[in-house]
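Input.
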Amino acid sequence: MGCEYGPDGKCGRKVAARGMCASHRRMWLAGKPLDTPVRAYQRYDEGPDGKPVKVAIRPRVVRRDPWVKEKALLGSLGL
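Output.
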């Protein structure tokens, strides 16, 4: 059973408390109207076959050892 608030009465998000999702509960606590749309979790685009696909995928960050130069210096000094 999903949240029943939103512009069309079907938010669809997981119920957290008082029959509403966390986003609508925050709006309720702030005194804002509950019939405004909530931002979607992820943006989707329509693929060539009509199925939804993610718009952009963030590239993975390649982490390097921050002490490579220092270790090389210590190795060259024989320490």
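The beta strands are 44-46, 52-54.
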